[in-house]
Design a protein that fits this description.
The chain is an alpha+beta fold. The protein folds into two domains: about 10-175, GAF domain (Beta-Lactamase, 2-Layer Sandwich), CATH 3.30.450.40; about 215-360, 2-Layer Sandwich (Alpha-Beta Plaits). Helix content is about 45%, strand content about 20%. The protein contains ten helices and 13 strands. A hairpin with a 5-residue loop joins strand 7 and strand 8 (about 130-140). The longest helix is centred in the middle third of the chain and has 60 residues, at about 145-205. It is rod-shaped and about 125 Å long. The termini are far apart. Bound molecules: guanosine-5'-triphosphate (GTP). InterPro entries: Diguanylate_Cyclase, GAF, GAF-like_dom_sf, GGDEF_dom, Nucleotide_cyclase, Rev_trsase/Diguanyl_cyclase. It catalyses: 2 GTP = 3',3'-c-di-GMP + 2 diphosphate. Its EC number is 2.7.7.65. Keywords: Coiled coil.
């Protein structure tokens, strides 16, 4: 070791880069690890010294990732020989007698109360050449290292660097995996959100905003829905057309707002009278179509009776009644359009014969 003037402290930019490089390993203040402990033990054995450390040179301290024969976890950087060693990153620094060296005599390092006399430190560099710390061996006697011991120290330093890189690689992989998972979660969330928006849009496009019943677009969609069609194919079904009586008068006498309330009341009455598989559609201004899959005419007539009753019970400042026409269909019988036509004629008859009534179409099915 030359005894010339101490190496100049690194320039601030370089030091900042070195500290950033050290921080990237997230090694400082971590728990002890067997692999690093093994390295200092090997260093002690191979160099026949009482103490060895893996020191990381932080902003204002040296912190020991592993230490044998040294009782403290860290020391101020101002007293760290390794702070000097890292200034020649690829070179082993040897101080045969610390107390005889004017540069370090005042450092005052001790092992078990005895001053450190001998120091050898091999810088631990990252692949970019930043010295993060050193692998050190220390003794309380002035001494030297044999060529083999120097080489052993260099090899152990290289192993330590491999451990550092492995750590960085593992953490980077962990981070990438976490990022990938987070991205996958974000993607899933936005897909769910999109699906929800799509459903809402579909729902609002298919629904009549005044009554909440399906609108004609909704009915069209239902026609393209194989599940709904399969339900009509499953057995005899009924179609019911409900029309509010003298609704024009309601509007004319009581205003459109009350007219709207009446329409909502009729829609609610229908919704309360049908079962889950039935479908109610606001078909025209004051006309509601109800599709009742797997429902015979007699049962459809009962449902119609419930609708009439419900409508009669609605609290409005005028009496509200409905006329209802019902027709039945069955798989292999009239096409649904023909059944609808018959329900419409039944409704016409209900209107023509005095309104506020149910007319069930009794035309025999054409096979
Ligand atoms: N308030 C309100 N009125 C509507 C709405 N849609 C249609 N109407 C009205 O419903 C009335 C339907 O009148 P008509 O088809 O003549 O039949 P009606 O007066 O009910 O007579 P009948 O069906 O023969 O008993 C019209 O005056 C439409 O303006 C709506 O969304 N709100």
């Amino acid at each position: 070791m030359s005894r010339s003037t101490p190496p100049r402290r690194d320039d601030p930019t370089e030091e900042m880069r070195r500290l950033a490089a050290l921080a990237a390993y997230e090694l400082l203040d971590t728990e002890p690890e067997q692999a690093y402990d093994d390295i200092v033990r090997l260093a002690v054995t191979l160099c026949s010294v009482p103490a060895a450390t893996i020191s990381l040179v932080d902003h204002d301290r040296q912190w020991f990732k592993a230490a044998l024969g040294v009782r403290v976890a860290q020391t101020p950087r101002s007293q760290a020989l390794c702070d000097v060693a890292i200034r020649t990153p690829r070179q082993l620094m040897l101080v045969e007698d610390v107390l005889a060296d004017a540069r370090f005599a005042h450092f005052g390092m001790t092992i078990d109360g005895r001053p450190v006399r001998f120091y050898a430190g091999m810088p631990l560099c990252n692949p970019e050449g930043h010295a993060l710390g050193t692998l050190n061996v220390l003794d309380v006697e002035p001494r030297q290292l044999s060529a083999e011991q120097r080489q052993a120290l260099e090899l152990l330093a290289r192993q330590t660097q491999h451990l550092f890189e492995l750590r960085r690689y593992t953490r980077e992989q962990g981070r990438l995996l976490a990022e990938r998972d987070a991205a996958a979660r974000r993607l899933e969330a936005s897909r769910d959100d999109l699906e929800r928006r799509h459903e809402r849009l579909k729902h609002s496009a298919a629904r009549d905003p005044l009554t909440g019943l399906l609108n004609r677009a909704g009915l069209g969609e239902l026609r393209e829905n194989p599940d709904a069609l399969a339900r009509l194919d499953a057995g005899p079904y009924s179609l019911m057309l409900i029309d509010v009586d003298h609704f024009k008068q309601v509007n004319d006498r009581h205003g459109h707002l009350l007219g709207d309330r009446a329409l909502r009341a009729v829609a609610d009455s229908v919704a309360a009278s049908i079962r889950e598989g039935d479908v109610a559609v606001r078909f025209g201004g004051e006309e509601v179509l109800v599709v009742l899959p797997q429902t015979r005419l007699a049962h459809a007539a009962e449902v119609a009776g419930r609708v009439r009753q419900q409508v009669a019970g609605v609290a409005l400042p005028f009496p509200l009644t409905v006329s209802i026409g019902i027709a039945g269909g069955e798989p292999g019988g009239d096409p649904p359009e023909a059944v609808f036509e018959r329900a419409d004629q039944a409704l016409y008859r209900a209107k023509a014969t005095g309104r506020d009534r149910i007319v069930v179409d009794d035309t025999p099915q054409v096979g």
